[in-house]
């Protein structure tokens, strides 16, 4: 039974997909009527954020310095310091977006949602790196909060309309990612996938 005029409601776990009858080829928008929190959607978004932010780390471990051209091409900002630094590479940006798009397809969210999450996560990471360089912090140095929040918040804002995310969805996803990223970084360090435990 349609939940809204011109729409078809399809049940999936605790999601309700709202598919516009005039554009069923577009991305599904997952909502649950009357609920400010969507735990399954939050879990899916956390997986995509993990892929977006973890892919460059794994690529560096597997590929080393191969095809690791710095994104800023060694250009300095007006303060004489690097724009982003050598740890932000073209390889990392491309692989992050591609793998996140692929992950979204597997989850049934659509490649364009994944590409948006991946692109925005990269933008958040680059923003953090840019600010850290201005603060004279070395590449890969620790800046709690600045290292986690932008790369989680920007992707959620980028897809908030398409996925009908609530403020609670966004807040809980960012908070969970923040805690998980701190703990996961230590695990990656122990597995020798990261150079530092943060």
Structure description:
The protein is mainly α. It folds into 2 domains: 1-35, no CATH class; 36-190, no CATH class. 52% of the residues lie in helices and 8% in strands. It has 5 helices and 3 strands, in the order E-E-E-H-H-H-H-H. The protein has helices spanning 39-63, 90-107, 111-134, 149-159, 167-190; strands spanning 7-12, 15-20, 29-31. The chain has a 3-stranded antiparallel sheet with strand order 1-2-3, with no helix packed on it. Helix 1 (39-63) packs across helix 3 and helix 3 runs antiparallel to helix 4 (149-159). The protein starts with 6 loop residues before the first strand and ends in an 8-residue tail after the last helix. Mean pLDDT is 79; it is low at 1-29.
Question: Which features would summarize this protein structure in a list?
Answer:
mainly alpha, 5 helices, 3-stranded antiparallel sheet, 198 residues, disordered N terminus, 2 domains
Question: What's the gist of this structure?
Answer:
The protein is mainly alpha-helical and 198 residues long. The protein contains 5 helices and 3 strands; from the N terminus they run βββααααα.
Give the arrangement of secondary structure elements.
Elements: E1 7-12, E2 15-20, E3 29-31, H1 39-63, H2 90-107, H3 111-134, H4 149-159, H5 167-190
Antiparallel strand pairs: 1-2, 2-3
How does the helix and strand content classify structurally? mainly alpha
Give the spatial strand order of the biggest sheet: 1-2-3
Number of domains: 2
Reading the helices and strands in chain order gives: EEEHHHHH
- Determine the fraction of residues in helical runs and give it as a percent range: 40-55%
Coarse shape: globular
Whole-number mean pLDDT = 79
Tally of DSSP helical segments: 5
Strand content: 5-15%
In angstroms, what is the radius of gyration?
18 Å
Stretches with pLDDT under 50, minimum 5 residues: 1-29
Distance between the termini: 49 Å
The total count of strands amounts to: 3
Major β-sheet annotation: 3 strands, antiparallel
